[in-house]
Automatic annotation (TrEMBL):
Membrane-crossing segments per the record: none
Statement: the UniProt record of this protein carries the keyword DNA-binding: yes
Protein keywords: DNA-binding, DNA-directed DNA polymerase, Nucleotidyltransferase, Transferase
Stated family: Belongs to the DNA polymerase type-B family.
Catalytic activity entry: DNA(n) + a 2'-deoxyribonucleoside 5'-triphosphate = DNA(n+1) + diphosphate
SMART domains: POLBc
Pfam families (UniProt xref): DNA_pol_B (PF00136)
Keyword Repressor recorded: no
SUPFAM superfamilies: DNA/RNA polymerases (SSF56672)
Record's protein name: DNA-directed DNA polymerase
UniProt cross-references to CDD domains, sorted A to Z: POLBc_B2 (cd05531)
MF GO annotations: DNA binding; DNA-directed DNA polymerase activity; nucleotide binding
UniProt record, GO biological process: DNA-templated DNA replication
Length: 703
């Protein structure tokens, strides 16, 4: 039976297995987590470890220690009493080379930093994939009321439970026992200790959120950096017999929902709770770890393979990204967008790009265009990982297109989105310094193939009577060349797809599309454009204010109104009049302050900021109210008086919002208007000059 969750206790591992109508509890008293050690002096190390009280057993095993290994190596398997002691012992072994008989680098350690439940599943061969629909209970509470320890604000599946603390807790306990959920989906995992503490204060002795008494804190809150972005990981908790999913700590839940998470559980064998809080890179690594262990390949603790020596000429050619065509700034009619489907993952599969195949020792060929790296013809590890994901997503997308069942379509869409993020991250992960199975030469080879593919596609499209108006990485925007006959786009896509063995698909047709210039020059911004989808009442918006997460709802709606005005009128004057009307509404004070809230992600502590910005004022205000925001968290606020430099210049989203700073929001509105006007050749000075001469607005400004 599949494992839902497990707890590591003194008396053994307590397992909770999903049955057809509930769960079954089991106990495993024989499990011992293990790490592996290779290197010189293993006999001496084994002698030392046998007297270590943490160690339960030692023995020699045969494993491959790298993806490219042709023969197995003898490694020392060290079994331990507790899963929490694996990392402790690894640190101790690493320090042993300070002792006289061992030298630095004498040992290499494997299978060290696996998440506890994931480790348990792959080491014992226990599947965590449920074979029935899981029962989910949603628990929510606003942060200010959690701070104030007001349990009456708690909601269960969106409903309040009562007005008295004891009544709410008893109702919650009854709901949990009646529903018997497999998953507690919480707005914040802090609900878990909070409810138990409140029950204790109310003398409710039999209260519990788990399938057994109590709860456990797994980790404290922490701040981390990933791909140059600061993130915040809240404290993590678990309860016996149920998976806890923290909405505030799960990017993948937000993107793909429970169905998407369960698809990733099946691929990675990370149980649901560990999958929910894992990053995309963490899940990709787990999928790779599982595949490597199936190949009898150990998982390195730290990557030790250095970048290959390269000549200056090779570095010049290799150290480049994907190909881009500078966008033709302005408005373009009758434009077609075509995309290569999962271009980088497909390149890895089609050209067998993997750490052990690129620049291998057994080939001296120049396979990679432009940089001349060789690629081995043995089956690569990375293609073996990615091909099932690519194929499954293609099948899921095909079923989405064919099904008329809305519930089924929603589930499939969630699974497709989850796989999309894995495929999006797999390329960048090859260049990530801490990737278990990454290598910079793979990253360079993928880019080299991508550049060649895009250039070849451009030539084919131009020969077919089309002009490329923009192109970036895996997408091309083309329009027919006046006076020339055009080969139909589907025919050209089929021709290119067949040649490259990578699908080139017609993504969209646009009645018109605008490419926006950079804010400080007339050159086109690579990822800023907007337009109208042909044959549909639908806009496409990328990179502009309307899709930026910090943009207030009022400004987002205003910019979309301006784009629709452009669609109707194709006139900068009409856009100016519409903008003028919205700014008048703003200046009259008739905008709901909640539609002016700004959301910013915090990159450092409030004390570390040098400038007195609105965000800093919001952070000071939050701190003084007992709601400190940590790096990686969001803060949401209304600007009420931007002339001040104190915390009074803003109000926080949960406060009773009052008047707003009209001039500040007017500037934001004008900025959004500029993004629509500049592709037409107008900037803010043109807008102001036009309105100075306007006494009577046309009807269009009021539509």
């Amino acid at each position: 039976m599949p494992l839902l969750t497990c707890e590591f206790r003194e008396e053994g591992v307590r397992e909770w297995h999903v049955t057809s109508d509930g769960v079954e509890r089991r106990r495993n008293t024989d499990y011992e987590p293990a790490l592996m050690v290779s290197g010189e002096g293993l006999d001496g190390l084994r002698d030392r470890l046998q007297s270590d009280p943490k160690v339960t057993s030692t023995r020699y095993d045969e494993w491959f220690t790298s993806l490219g290994s042709d023969t197995t190596s003898t490694v020392l398997r060290v079994g331990l009493e507790r899963v929490t002691e694996v990392r402790t012992l690894a640190d101790e072994i690493r320090r042993l080379y300070e002792i006289e008989e061992f030298h630095p680098g004498a040992f290499r350690l494997f299978n060290v930093d696996l998440a506890p439940q994931f480790r348990y599943c792959v080491e014992t061969g226990t599947s965590p994939v449920p074979e029935r629909d899981l029962r989910v209970l949603n628990l929510g509470i606003p942060e200010p009321t959690l701070r104030d320890r007001d349990v009456t604000a708690l909601t269960v599946d969106g409903e309040r439970l009562g007005d008295s603390p004891a009544g709410v807790l008893r109702a919650l306990d009854e709901r949990v026992r009646t529903v018997d959920p497999d998953v507690l989906c919480c707005s914040t995992a802090r609900i878990i200790p909070f409810c138990h503490e409140q029950a204790s204060e109310q003398d409710i002795d039999d209260f519990r959120l788990g399938r057994a008494d109590g709860y456990e804190k797994l980790a404290g809150a922490s701040t981390y950096e990933s791909y140059g972005q600061i993130g915040h990981s809240p404290a993590r908790f678990r309860v016996p017999g149920r998976a806890v999913v923290d909405e505030s700590n799960s990017f993948l839940l937000d993107e793909s929902g429970i169905p998407g998470l369960l698809d990733l559980v099946a691929r990675s064998w990370r149980p649901l709770q560990e999958t929910a809080w894992g990053s995309i890179g963490t899940i990709l690594t787990a999928i790779q770890v599982r595949k490597a262990l199936e190949r009898d390949v150990l998982i390195p603790w730290n990557k030790w393979e250095p970048e290959q020596f390269k000549t200056v000429a090779t570095l010049h050619e290799a150290d480049r990204g994907g190909f881009t065509f500078a966008p033709d700034v302005g408005i373009h009619e009758d434009v077609v967008q075509i995309d290569f489907g999962s271009l980088y993952p497909n390149i890895m599969c089609e050209y067998n790009i993997s750490p052990e195949t690129v620049c291998c020792d057994c080939h001296d060929t120049e396979d990679v265009p432009g940089i001349g790296y060789s690629i081995c013809d043995r089956d690569g590890f990375i293609p073996d990982v990615l091909r099932p994901i690519i194929d499954d997503r293609a099948d899921i997308k095909a079923e989405i297109a064919s099904t008329s069942d809305s519930d089924r379509r929603q589930t499939l869409k969630a699974r497709s989105d989850a796989l999309k993020w894995i495929l999006v991250s797999c390329f960048g992960y090859q260049g990530y310094r801490n990737a278990k199975f990454g290598r910079i030469e793979c990253h360079e080879a993928i880019n080299a193939y991508a550049r060649e593919i895009l250039l070849d596609a451009k030539e084919t499209l131009e020969a077919g009577g089309w002009r490329v108006v923009h192109g970036i990485v895996d997408s091309l925007w083309v329009q027919p060349v006046a006076g020339e006959s055009q080969t139909p786009i589907p025919e050209l896509c089929d021709r290119i797809s067949e040649r490259e063995s990578i699908p080139l698909e017609l993504e969209d047709r646009y009645d018109w599309i605008c490419f926006v210039p950079l804010s400080d020059s007339e050159a086109g911004a690579l990822t800023k454009y907007f337009g109208r989808v042909a044959g549909a009442d639908e806009l496409v918006t990328k990179g502009i204010e309307a899709v930026q997460r910090s943009t207030p709802p009022f400004v987002e709606a205003l910019q979309r109104d301006l784009i629709w005005t452009l669609d109707r009128e194709q006139s900068p004057e009409a856009i100016c009049e519409r903008l003028y009307r919205d700014i008048q509404t703003l200046e009259s004070g008739n905008v709901d302050p909640r539609n002016l809230l700004i959301r910013k992600r915090v990159s450092k502590t409030v004390e570390a900021y040098d400038q007195r910005t609105q965000t800093v004022a919001a952070l000071q205000r939050a701190r003084d109210q007992g709601l400190p925001r940590h790096p990686g968290q969001d803060v949401e606020y209304l600007v009420v008086d931007d002339s001040r430099r104190s915390k009074e210049r803003v109000q926080l989203a949960h406060e009773s919002l009052g008047e707003y700073d009209t001039e500040f929001y007017r500037t934001l509105a004008l900025r959004a208007g500029e993004s629509v006007l500049r592709p037409l050749g107008w900037d803010r000075s043109d807008y102001r000059r036009y309105l100075r001469g306007t006494t009577t607005l046309s009807l269009e400004g009021f539509l």
